[in-house]
Amino acid sequence: MPKSGQGTKGPMERRTLLQREETRELFIPVVAVALALVLGAVLVKLGGKSPVAAYSALVRGAFGGVGNLAETLINVTPLIFTGLAVAFSFRCGLFNIGAEGQLIMGQVASAWVGFALTGLPAFVHMPLALVAGVAAGAAWGAVPGYLKARLGVHEVINTIMMNYIALYLSHYLVIGPLKAPGPLPVTPTIAPAARLWRFLPPTRLHLGVVLAVAAVWLVYYVLFRTTLGYEIRAVGQNPEAARYGGISVRRNIVLAMVISGGLAGAAGAVQVLGLQYKFLDIFSFTGYGFDGIAVALLGRNHPLGVLAAACLFGTLARGAILMQSIARIPKEIIGIVQATIVLFVAADEIIRRFIAPRRKAAPAAAAQAALNGVEGGADHGA
């Protein structure tokens, strides 16, 4: 029977330390964003412009009116999907650099199903075209996942190469077998039944934003409420310990890359079905896949964090347009702000020292901290 004083105090102290650590982790991206905005203001001032006017124009460009708000949400939508894709693979200890290629293949597949199949009702055609894009991205992600699981080939190299394969394969398809009549390298326009429903007219806001938010909930549920999610996170934390516990590391690596690729493919699908209505080879390399890496880093690889980070990056991208046209501030300033955010988040030790400077612990305190860590690990294992 535990002692009354010690048996209850230990777990409470550990929970308090855990809460402090979680709060500190939450502050890291917040401080990174604040420091990046301050840097942006300094650069604007050095250019002889007003930082207040610049950021006011940015906010108006992103949220000033229904039309601007709709365009901001349109920018946010693919970032949510690609951010989730990169974050999901991170949770399994994998670095998916191939979200851009998976997005391209999702675009091609959705466009093909959208124009090649005719006579289908909307409640069949639109989901079918969406699923085709997800499946194409999943298949594209499965290749580096399989090579990693079976042969140990590093996924970073494979996914980068798969990006270029997707780019040039789509280029061949759109100037050859899938080309629409005319001089432009585009596919035929998809059927109206395959298009995502647009609401809030006359804006271009479409059902994809709802699907993106639903994807956030789905990824959260899979990662933190299912056995599959537990196994994927276990493999990401320690593959050898996961294997010792009876978890198939190879299977979960492949599954993580398949799901990650499917999420990136969904980003391409909603772009074609909700906005473009065709695959345009000119704009196939959108950059959303690479931006998804920054979104996942800023969101700390958590679905809710990805949602917040995607909203921030989408807002900056949309607001930069009006900031340039009204305040005469180069939109490249926003690029510097985004890059600075990623820098501070990636080099999080800088932020940690800024939030809580290190102190030399007394030997007794250090020993007690180590003992608490061992007890915490035992409790967690139990």
**Using DSSP, what is the number of strands?**
0
Alpha-beta content class: mainly alpha
- Separation, N- and C-terminal Cα atoms: 17 Å
Number of helices: 15
Q: Report the sheet with the most strands, covering strand number, pairing sense and barrel closure.
A: none
User: Helical percent range?
Assistant: over 70%
Mean pLDDT: 85
Rg calculated over all Cα atoms: 23 Å
Low-confidence stretches are 1-9, 359-367, 373-382
Mass-distribution shape = globular
In short:
The protein is 76% helix and 0% strand. The chain has 382 residues and is an all-alpha fold. The protein has a domain at 81-308.
Q: Would you give an account of this structure?
A:
- The chain has helices at residues 4-46, 51-63, 66-91, 99-116, 122-151, 155-175, 208-225, 227-237, 239-244, 249-276, 288-298, 303-326, 332-346, 348-355, 363-381.
- Mean pLDDT is 85; it is low at 1-9, 359-367 and 373-382.
- With 382 residues, the protein is mainly α.
- It is globular, with a radius of gyration of 23 Å.
- It has 15 helices and no strands.
- Helix 2 packs across helix 3.
- The chain has a domain at 81-308.
